[in-house]
Amino acid sequence: MLEATIVKHCAPTLAGIKTGNIFSIRDAKPEVADEIHRLDRMLRKKGIRIIPLKRTKGNMLIYIYRPDRLQEDLTKPQAQEILADKGYPCGDTGCWKVYSNESRAKAIFDRYKRCTNAYVRQTRKGKPLESLVVNGRDFSKERSLGAAPA
User: Would strands 49-56 and 59-65 be described as parallel, antiparallel, or unpaired?
Assistant: First the structure.
């Protein structure tokens, strides 16, 4: 069940067209943490990490991401401007322009939707999660859950 949920909410990240996704699981059983740990170990070699961000009263907030892409994203002027505005030290910052081009934003979100639909179809046909992941940097030798590589 967790694998189908990951495909439904994180297909663009699995496909390598998005840096990461956050999703929640309601009424998460204790064994979900073990499943996340197993999937994190399995997908690290393909450049993906899965970490629980928060757990409250049976609910769990999960982050699936590509650490190499996240590090790259955080060096962009737009990200540095946001971080500086929030009090984090950064170098020179640029302008925030993510939604300044509405047609480009719509095209990106349409691409995410098409990707998700394709991945859900493949999952329903029995294709395993690991085979859906586009390879990235291998993080299999990095520390386990909760610690992004340095």
Answer: antiparallel
pLDDT 10s digits, 30-46: 889 899 999 999 999 99
Number of domains in the chain: 1
The tens digit of pLDDT for each residue in 46-68 reads 999 999 999 888 899 999 999 99
| Residue 124 domain flag | yes
Calculate the alpha carbon distances from 139 to 43, 72, 73 in Å. Answer: 8, 16, 18
Q: What residues make up the domain containing 24?
A: 2-132
* Cα dihedral: 83, 84, 86, 88 (round 10): 80
How far is residue 100's CA from residue 16's CA, in Å, rounded to a whole number? 24
Report percent pLDDT > 90 for the chain: 39
